[in-house]
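Zinc-binding dehydrogenase
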Amino acid sequence: MKAAVWYGQKDLRVEEVEVSPLKENEVQVRVAWAGICGSDLHEYEEGPVFMPSQQKDELTGQQTPLTMGHEFAGIVEQVGSQVKGIKPGDRVSVNPTLTHGNKHEDVDIYDGFSFIGLHGNGGFTSFANVPEENIYILPESLSLQDGALVEPMAVAVQAVKESNIQFGDTVAVFGTGPIGLVTIVAAKAAGASRIIALDLSETRLQKAKEMGATDIINSGEVNPVEAIKELEKDGVDISFEVAGVEPTFKQSIEATKARGTMVIVSIFAGSIDWNPMQLTGGGVKITSTIAYSPSSFQQTVDLMGTGQLKPQEMITDKIQLDDIVEKGFEALSNDKSQAKILVELSGEL
């Protein structure tokens, strides 16, 4: 079968791979659709970031080269001998997060984690073997394309939960790439009264407006902090840093009101120069989040199933696996009108 295999920076190859033997606790998923994530793009442009290139990953036992793809959904092809709650034909989404499972789910991921598709073989292929506990059955109201959006939507659900948002709170989202867009969706569903989206791309800002932002600010044309405070005199209750660069990190804090909360959602490619006195002088609280708990993933499935979370508008293109480099990764690198690109595998709905 074909797979998109990561070998190194700017070295992603579509090539033939063998289907791995199915373990007794695993489910084999016939992949229908898989999304290209910002983390995937980081690996393509700058990696290895998460990729276990020098030694085998602790949880997966794998190292590069490996098949990418951690946002995917499909249909169960077969199940291992010890799998009880899942059967062939089930329509499923995959939670790609692997942990040791030794602690409460709220802190378990911080005890060490790996990702299917980043630390071990993933979903940019026809068949993917996944541990039973990482399989989530989709409601009939969701298509398999929707199922490929559960993972990024869950990132935003976890970030919004981390912010302790209250009904009526005001929010600023710095960065309107795919995760910024779904953060807007999640904040709106959680009761934010005003959602200010900031970016350098007018195209992305218009997409943010379509997905629920009440106000948009082009940070390249005006001072973003001053623009926010023209709308909210004392600053916003909560800011989300979803750009992963030094300027937006500092701006997110400065735009948040005293005793408000800034949530770091993005992955930073490197260190930044920052003085913590910015916090001391303003009283802003900083928190951060990575991925999601199993409960947040299930909540995301449920809320998407009822229509309370609608991330579907962020899809900007659907491509074939053979075109994943040129029309996928390169397009995302060079075309800011692109947000979420789905890769068609079986193409089932």
